[in-house]
Amino acid sequence: MERNSLARVIAVCALLGALSALVVTSGAAAAGSTPKCTITGTPGNDVLTGTRGSDVICGLGGNDTIIGGAGNDTLVGGAGSDKLVGAGGNDTLSGGAGNDQLVGGAGNDQLDGGAGDDTEDGGAGNDELVGGVGNDQLDGGAGDDIEDGGAGDDQLVGGVGNDQLDGGAGDDIEDGGAGDDELVGGAGSDQLNGGTGNDSAAADSEDSATGTEQGDSSSSSSSAF
């Protein structure tokens, strides 16, 4: 009996040790992957609003509306067609799967639509916009913006400022707007319009490039409008 009891104690101790190691490993992996959510939604359709501080707001499933408020916020839409609004601060917006609407607002924001046909508006500030997979519409707004359409037939607008536009794969339409812009057509039959300013373009034989300034010129390959 004593030997059996001792054996059971040893087995229980071994099991507890294994569970403890598993918990530590899982916690470390979770801590190193994504920021901890300070405000979390549900699997349904949520309306989530941040605080005056820097929040990490996670919508999870459903068609969510997430508003960051003041502070440098991180907004994660998750699955569903979400609307993310950064408002004030230097915000990071991630739409995830679904046809999402991302609005950076004031500040130097980072917008990533993810999969789906997304609409992104950087607003004021020097913003970075990534369309991802899908037919996306990107508008940098005021400021020196960087835009990457990704895969799909995208529409990129630079707005006011010295912008960098890259359509990526697909038949894209790019408009640099005001400022000295750099436009890259990428794969596909693209339409590149430098707008006002001293603009440059990297276009191939399948692309069309036009400019409006007298000092602009256009040609295939890498060129200046």
From TrEMBL:
InterPro entries linked to this entry: Hemolysin-typ_Ca-bd_CS, Hemolysn_Ca-bd, RTX_toxin/Mannuronan_C5-epim, Serralysin-like_metalloprot_C
Cellular component, GO annotation: extracellular region
Cleavable signal peptide: 1-30
Acidic residues bias: start-end ranges: 142-151, 169-183
Molecular function, one GO term: calcium ion binding
Region ranges (Disordered): 91-225
Subcellular location: Secreted
Gene3D superfamilies: Serralysin-like metalloprotease, C-terminal
Keywords: Secreted, Signal
Primary localisation category: secreted
Keyword Secreted in annotation: yes
PANTHER family with a match to the protein in the record: S-LAYER PROTEIN
Name used for this protein in its record: Hemolysin-type calcium-binding repeat
Organism: Gaiella occulta
